[in-house]
From TrEMBL:
Name recorded for this polypeptide: Prostaglandin reductase 1
Keyword Zinc-finger carried by entry: no
The reaction(s) this protein catalyses: octanal + NADP(+) = (2E)-octenal + NADPH + H(+); (5S,12S)-dihydroxy-(6E,10E,12E,14Z)-eicosatetraenoate + NADP(+) = 12-oxo-(5S)-hydroxy-(6E,8E,10E,14Z)-eicosatetraenoate + NADPH + H(+); 4-hydroxynonanal + NADP(+) = (E)-4-hydroxynon-2-enal + NADPH + H(+); 13,14-dihydro-15-oxo-PGF2alpha + NADP(+) = 15-oxoprostaglandin F2alpha + NADPH + H(+)
Native organism taxonomy: Eukaryota, Metazoa, Ecdysozoa, Arthropoda, Hexapoda
EC number(s) from the headed UniProt entry: 1.3.1.48, 1.3.1.74
A Gene Ontology BP annotation from the UniProt entry: prostaglandin metabolic process
The family this protein is said to belong to: Belongs to the NADP-dependent oxidoreductase L4BD family.
Location in the cell: Cytoplasm
Species, as recorded: Popillia japonica
Keyword annotations from UniProtKB, A to Z: Acetylation, Cytoplasm, Fatty acid metabolism, Hydroxylation, Lipid metabolism, NADP, Oxidoreductase, Phosphoprotein, Prostaglandin metabolism
Highest taxon above the source species: Eukaryota
Domain Enoyl reductase (ER): 17-331
A GO cellular-component term linked to this record: cytoplasm
Length: 333
């Protein structure tokens, strides 16, 4: 009999999650039935959306999230032993799944990884997975950047933000990144960002005016809050805004109060669109193909913050909400 370690949602989050909110339990898994397979987690993804989606969860539910897992036992011809899958199994070390599991807002069907050892397995949670697709479609399909335009990225040293900035450079844009430490600003400069702003040390409005004296054409927003209002207030007519995340308010109770940006949306005829990356599931391979191509060409660099040990999942999530990570945050089981 296989025992699985599982983190369950034990108490509604108040501020940054702790082990009081996410309880570690053990489950005895049954024997496999026909069409089922057993997957053992290798890497788990840690993402800001987990904090944002928590109010939609029920007490006792397995904490949501994606993982790369190895198939260790199988009664399914479609999922043979030894292969790897990506799936939203949540925060658990072992999972029994079938070929066609029920899919909902938190659960997607498992997908076999074309893993050949040429890249780390964890990349299929990041640059070659959901994060990479988020950056690719969220920026290109919504912002529709044109060569020579000025692009601003908030949360620019995170997994999505750092990726978006590099795509913008590939497309011939001027790129300004907003991050929270000098070290993060220095790192994204090595990725090709033209200007950086440390929002904890600098006056964002003033620094942005200096970096983009002719205004901003595209804004990829990962943080929301006052930074979003500041950037939007300096956008050019017919500018485009891709609203990917609002991490600045995830740990607050209720809706955060910020200065309104609606007058700028109206007077400058800006387009703003929020999105969820699963909208592009039918085009997912396009993102993977181009991200791989850019990596091979040396145009796309990638960094991970790796936490060792499944028992440290809660601290890894708390870390990204504090801004401790640079690049993609993953936990190595």
């Amino acid at each position: 009999m296989v025992k699985a370690k599982v983190f369950v949602y034990a108490k509604p989050f108040e501020g940054i999650p702790t082990k009081e909110h996410l309880k570690l339990i053990e489950e005895d898994l049954p024997s496999l039935k026909d069409g089922e397979f057993l997957a053992e987690a290798v890497y788990l993804s840690v993402d800001p959306y987990m904090r944002a989606y928590a109010p939609r969860m029920t007490i006792g539910q397995t904490m949501i999230g994606s993982q790369v897992a190895k198939i260790t036992e199988s009664k399914s011809s479609k999922f043979p032993v030894g292969k790897y899958v990506v799936s939203s199994f949540g925060w658990r070390t072992h999972t029994i799944s079938n070929e066609n599991p029920p899919v909902n807002a938190f659960v997607s069907a498992p997908v076999l990884i074309p893993y050949d050892g040429s890249v780390p397995l964890s990349y299929f949670l990041g640059v070659l997975g959901m994060t990479g697709a988020t950056a690719y479609f969220g920026f290109l399909d919504i912002c529709k950047p044109k060569e020579g335009e000025t692009v601003v990225v908030s949360g620019a040293a995170g997994a999505v933000g750092s990726h978006v900035g590099q795509i913008a450079k590939i497309k011939g844009c001027k790129v300004i990144g907003i991050a929270g430490t000098d070290a993060k600003c220095e790192w994204i400069k090595t990725l090709g960002f033209d200007h950086t702003i440390n929002y904890k040390k600098q006056d964002v409005a003033k620094a942005l005016k200096e970096a983009a004296p002719n205004g901003v054409d595209c804004y990829f927003d990962n943080v929301g809050g006052e930074i979003a209002t500041t950037v939007i207030s300096q956008m050019n007519r017919f500018g485009r805004i891709s609203a990917c995340g609002a991490i600045s308010g995830y740990n607050e109770e209720g809706l955060p109060k910020v200065s309104t940006f609606l007058p700028f949306i109206i007077t400058n005829e800006l387009e703003m669109k929020g999105f969820i990356v699963t909208t592009w599931l039918d085009k997912w391979s396009e993102a993977v193909t181009n991200n791989v191509k850019w990596m091979k060409e040396g145009k796309l660099q990638w960094r991970e913050t790796v936490t060792e040990g499944f028992d440290n999942m809660v601290e890894a999530l708390a870390g990204i909400l504090r801004g401790d990570n640079t690049g993609k945050a993953v936990v190595k089981v």
